[in-house]
């Protein structure tokens, strides 16, 4: 049964907006978590539990590439919107691709919810709906919904920068995912709160100040030295958790690419010095 619980938690972690799921639940479908919370009252058979495990494991396997497709289409759209030369037609076409990718996840989750419902006998279904009327949250749904909402907001904040999570973010995210898989939602919620605090993602609302890189010393402009400094910064950057700091590094990277294209070694050195000082100040 622990395997079933883990599978149910993983299913609810899919990228489908919670509001959409709630609409389906109001129509009579059952939240997978509800089945877990009232499994004793429903007297699920071993065969039913086996079927649920198989269906949810399959859904998880299918969801992973679909969610990746959504991330890629979101990233492509963000990049288009940041490009001042992009046209409305190009942006609209990319939006269509994103909606199509999101639609595939909705289709999968709806099919899975229906398959979960159909595992139950008519009597079990009626009892489950009586124990938890349509539209009412299941016993663990409140905490689960909070975890999902927080994770969604943090994920959206990272994606708004048009980049992939750093290695440090991935490590802590995997730690939280491990807690969710083991059913430790309260611990996952606490760890997620810590990650959100350290990410400072709410500070992304503040206006970005343009950096005057000319104020920084270039250091050695020897090409090999500049290359080594850049490589060290790339490694150090993977330890960043703060999203405002990441945004600053992206601004520096853009300026770096321009200076590199112009073969302006002195400006490259000044930009690297800025990045080094910012990382040092933030413990990097």
TrEMBL record:
Highest taxon, organism lineage: Bacteria
Extent of the signal sequence: 1-18
Coiled coil: 42-83
Pfam family for this entry, one: Metal_resist
Spans traversing the lipid bilayer: none
Keyword check for Coiled coil: yes
Keywords recorded for this protein, A-Z: Coiled coil, Signal
Protein name: Spy/CpxP family protein refolding chaperone
Organism: Prosthecobacter vanneervenii
Lineage: Bacteria, Pseudomonadati, Verrucomicrobiota, Verrucomicrobiia, Verrucomicrobiales
